[in-house]
Design a protein that fits this description.
It is built from 14 helices and 22 strands. It is of the alpha/beta class and 479 residues long.
């Protein structure tokens, strides 16, 4: 049994009792020469699970490892540092991670110098750390979402002593600016505007794993976006668990509407944002979206449930009437707006009638796309303590019924697009056929079309010829 060096261990209870300490912005980051000599020319592997916040963390970790001279690989057997960047939002995300950790047992036996790190939201939970320590004793370093910037320091510490390291910082009030970063794409970028979440929806683990809500300063966000515009990026997505509360903690008059407008003015061809919280969404934001053609007319507006009773149990701070009124105000000002959403089926004790309310409300909105989930109890959250009288089989049945009903609306919206021409950002060859390119429209619909690979990363006009449920087929219109 190796020694375990517990630098900091997580506590869900502490994460709930938010500390009132003020925010600290840290603008320096040093590169370690000792590590450079150790790792220069070696390879690293990173697998990210979960949301865009994790993807952005992956880019920072890739930046830190590149700054010590390492190169990325997708081949696990040639890697010196492997990182699994985990997600805790649902149980099935965690199960996939365990499967992949297991694969590393044989690789670690073959390559004794391989350093295996597990980070991200799962590691913010002490019961998971205990489980990993007892089940996968070959894991070398575990660190939390607030310790990303320390990756190089942790590697150095590990090499010195070869003890298992656990570092999950519970002080969550810091914002690190100007960390190295190696973006996954040269034409579309995610930019954090805030970290953490203060909403504490009763089913959700994120406020515990990502900490209290902290906004980046507007000037720092604008600087990052300007750099992306100068590098000829085509699309920026502003990221926050709740973008609408951006600036609430800054006390300098910054709001999401102002930020969105300032970023739009920088001239990025496409601007998006994620995620909106219905009752925090301000009408000024509608006006900004309408005013700037480069702000995509696509809104991801999670409803979670269409039943007022369930919304209350979920701790969501709006009812279906308020949600629909917001959708109506948006449609009145921006008729072409496409809506997408998140829906959870099978919240504890949800009745069939309450479930049907979700279908009803979804039909009224007419979503273009939606992310649907079966409720997954998350240890430490209030909903996980509820007794539940709905069987898993019933939840699966409702889930299928919901998807079927949503697909009617997806199909309708996709059919309306046939014969019309849309701008598409070309992402790359299609997954199934490398002779075909795949891009996506303003409303996030995937379009497949023939075209030269030189179009990748560009915005092209595509006429839609056929509609399928989850993709469209089109042809490039050259002008
Ligand atoms: N079970 C199922 N879905 C969840 N989500 C968050 N927590 C849970 C959970 N415990 C969903 C919500 C959220 C999306 C990112 O994940 O719909 O909006
Ligand atoms: Fe989770 Fe609710 Fe915060 Fe979204 S708003 S991250 S669902 S707690």
């Amino acid at each position: 049994m190796r020694k375990v060096n517990k630098i900091n261990i997580p506590s869900l209870e502490k994460a709930r009792l938010r500390n009132k300490e003020s925010l600290t912005y840290i603008y320096s980051h040093s590169i370690d020469d000792e590590l450079k000599s150790k790792f220069e020319g070696k390879k690293f592997f990173i697998r990210t699970y979960g949301c865009q916040a994790n993807v952005r963390d992956e880019e920072v970790m890739a930046g830190i490892l590149s700054s010590i001279g390492m190169e990325r690989t997708e081949n696990k057997s040639e890697t010196s540092v492997a990182i699994l960047n985990t997600c805790a939002v649902r149980e099935n995300a965690e199960d996939k991670v365990y499967g992949e950790i297991g694969e590393f047992k044989a690789l670690k036996n073959k390559n004794k110098d391989l350093v295996l790190c597990i980070c991200g939201c799962m590691i913010e939970q002490s019961h998971i750390i205990d489980f990993i320590l007892s089940t996968y004793p070959f894991v070398d370093i575990m660190f939390g979402t607030h310790n990303i910037q320390d990756l190089a320091i942790l590697l150095k510490e590990y090499i010195k002593k070869e003890e298992i390291i656990i570092d999950v910082e519970s002080k969550v009030g810091d914002i690190y600016e100007e960390l190295p970063s190696k973006r996954n794409s040269s034409f579309k970028a995610f930019v954090n505007i805030s970290y953490g979440c203060n909403k504490f929806c009763t089913y959700c683990i994120v406020p515990y794993t990502r900490g209290k809500e902290r906004s980046r300063k507007m000037e720092d966000i604008l600087k990052e976006c300007k750099e992306l515009v100068d590098l000829n990026y085509q699309e920026i997505t502003l990221l926050g668990q709740n973008v609408d509360s951006y600036g609430n903690d800054l006390n300098d008059g910054s709001t999401f509407a102002k930020l969105l407008e300032e970023v739009a003015k920088l001239g990025i061809p496409r601007l998006r944002f994620l995620t909106s919280y219905p009752s925090d969404f301000k009408d000024e934001v509608i006006d900004v979206i309408r005013k700037y053609p480069n702000i995509m007319k696509y809104l991801h507006l999670p409803i979670q449930s269409g039943s007022d009773e369930v919304l209350k149990m979920m701790g969501r701070r709006y009812d279906s009437k308020q949600y629909l009124a917001l959708v109506d105000r948006i449609k009145a000002k921006i008729p072409e707006m496409a809506f997408s959403t998140d829906i959870i089926v099978g919240f504890p004790n949800e009745t069939y009638e309450q479930f049907l309310d979700t279908i009803k409300v979804s039909e009224i909105v007419g979503y273009t796309s939606a992310f649907t989930f079966i409720y997954s109890p998350r240890k430490g959250t209030p909903a996980a303590r509820l007794k539940d009288n709905v069987t898993y089989e019933e939840k699966v049945k409702r889930f299928k019924e919901l998807v079927k009903s949503l697909e009617v609306s997806f199909d309708e919206k996709a059919k309306e697009m046939v014969g019309k021409t849309y701008e598409c950002l070309v992402e790359g060859p299609s997954k199934k056929n490398s002779d075909i390119l795949a891009g996506y429209t303003e409303n996030m619909k995937t379009v497949l079309f023939k075209g030269d690979t030189c179009l990748i990363g560009k915005i092209v006009k595509v006429k839609i010829l056929e509609s399928h449920l989850y993709s469209l087929v089109g042809e490039v219109i050259y002008e």
